[in-house]
């Protein structure tokens, strides 16, 4: 009987130790996920494009640590670390930044064009001034196209994440 009681006590102690170890492992996984993605959440608020770099890592981590993410999702009230609303907000910020850049770009090149046009109007339209004016227009268009390509690529990728 004492052997049976001793065996039961040992089995209970091993079961409790196993439970405690599982709980520590669960907490450790949650802490590691929090530590990894806390800086990502802050970075994305400042630069929406960073969401595109972090999102694949989040997706992979969710597959590896589903229980940790389930608890974090419940605690944060949404999909941790990026909710649908945060993704949509990143898309909106990206668009707002594009529009601000576009206005600034247009204003900058309007001044450059006006300066050369003024020189042309004040003097004869020399080949150098006409070439300078054409170069300004070409540079304006090239910068616009490059930046627009980047914007479209980012905006489409962010929109796909929000779906």
Verbal overview:
This protein has 163 residues and is an all-alpha fold. The chain folds into 2 domains: 81 residues, no CATH class; 77 residues. The chain is built from 5 helices and no strands. Helix 4 runs antiparallel to helix 5. The longest helix has 45 residues. It is rod-shaped, with a radius of gyration of 29 Å. The N and C termini lie far apart (64 Å).
Which structural class fits the helix and strand makeup? mainly alpha
Q: Give the CA-CA distance, first to last residue.
A: 64 Å
SSE order: HHHHH
- Tell me, rounded to a whole number, the average pLDDT: 89
- The percent range for helix content is over 70%
How many domains, as an integer? 2
Q: Could you outline the blueprint of secondary structure elements for this entry?
A:
Elements: H1 2-46, H2 50-64, H3 66-76, H4 84-122, H5 127-162
Helix pairs in contact: 1-2, 1-3, 2-3, 4-5
Quick overview:
With about 160 residues, this protein is an all-alpha fold. It has two domains: about 1-80, no CATH class; about 85-160.
Name the descriptors:
single chain, 163 residues, mainly alpha, rod-shaped
